[in-house]
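User: Please run a holo structure prediction.
Assistant: Happy to. Please share the sequence and the ligand.
User: Here you go; the ligand is fe (iii) ion.
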Amino acid sequence: MTTPESPLAPTDPAPIAPLRDFVVAFGRLLDERPVEARILTDGAPLLAELVSRDNWLPAAYAAPHPTYYQQYLLHADSTERFSIVSFVWGPGQKTPVHDHTVWGLIGMLQGAEYNQPYVLDDEGRPRPSGDPDRLEPGAVAAVSPTIGDLHRVSNAFDDRVSISIHVYGANIGGVHRHTYPEDGPPKPFVSGYSNTTLPNLWDRSKDGRRSA
Ligand code: FE
């Protein structure tokens, strides 16, 4: 049981304010109906600001699983223009090679991860494209069918948890996508989410606002 005084208590709305501010700012960016390139260039600094501090993510959405990396939905836009997900990587955990089919931004919150881009060879098999990027806290990377949509993400550490915050141009947990095995055809998948409840972004009772 947490107390109201605890700065990271899930029931305390104040620490979540950076995520609410990000949701509002990102929604305003999309209200301008920008092309994808501008979403990525103008959205990246918004995400960089969000992941510049790691004290706002409630513990329930930062919890690792001993076997599987976790993907917790933090917010879905009301018309599903974008979704925000915390990815929690246990020691040594990694994704298969996969696509997204929509634009995505990856912001590193805690720890570090490797982001290895892939391309398909003439036989449709995934091959690494260049060296992996090592993302440190505060760093932001992008994916999309336009700029390169296939990658594998790995926790850079085999002895601690890493957490990244991802933003996608759809309700990503319901998008029909693919993984790309080394020696077989692409496999369809729909990721879903690891959680069934969302953080409450909208309790403004501690904002210090006065009622009219
Ligand atoms: Fe991905």
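The first strand starts at residue 70 and ends at 76.
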